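Lecture 7 notes: from sequence to structure.

We start with a single chain of 283 residues. Read the sequence below before looking at the structure.
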Amino acid sequence: MLPASKTYGGLIDRLGLGKASLVFAGISAAIVAVVLLSPQWLAPLIPSSVERELGDALVGDFGGRFCDTPKGKAALAKLTRSLDDNPQDLQVEVANIDMLNAVALPGGKVLLFQGLLSQAKSPDEVAGVLAHEIGHVRERHVMQGLLRQMGLAVVLGGFDGSGGSTINSLLSTTYTRDSEREADDHSLKALKQANISPVGAADFFNRLASMDGSRDLKDRQARTMASYTSSHPLSDERRKLFENAVVKGSAYKPALTADEWQELKTMCAQDKDVKAGWGFDIE
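Now the structure, written as tokens:
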């Protein structure tokens, strides 16, 4: 008449700990797979108007840090038109921040940081980076990333803080690398259509490779491990990708004239009203 003893609970005791663990692991894997894959289907369903409102709310005027001079904006607009068939859908800005970077944000917003322009040796380098960020916009990678991160935060919320954040980072960077490769492919196609040489982008990634050390990774296993733990493909691999796209004998044209390149590169210095930096000091 006494109830049977319980070790783990009714369902687990009936199945056995081993079988129950396999069942729960399978269910968990299925949920994580749905979270990782569903943003690719959901992102295109989000109206562009909603994404633009989200981008406006996130970015605004960037605290007055967007650089603006007539000739500089004209050069930037020309560069954007050469790389995309529908530039009216994009808002490309130069932010007065000394950071070697560029980002794509919701609503077709692309920010080139002044640090990138300062370090660039030619407008062709900037063209390759800009085309890459436009690729993120056209492939809806930004919304995919936001949806995926929100989903993973919910699914992995049961883990302890360090374990959950580590797993979240590893899972999300896998898809970030895929997105980066798609954006690189988009950049190559855009440069080809605009008849701009990929050499500039290759030179840019060559300098990045010397900075991040990927050019010095000779051991195949070390390169493989580095690529798996990086949010981007190795800079040295990306250099080779753009170098291999160069067509010998092609009559490439510069992305901008010398005067236009100078106006774009010095736009922030010429804009006396633009604010500088992040607006706070980092110790």
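The longest strand covers residues 91-95. Keep this in mind for problem set 3.
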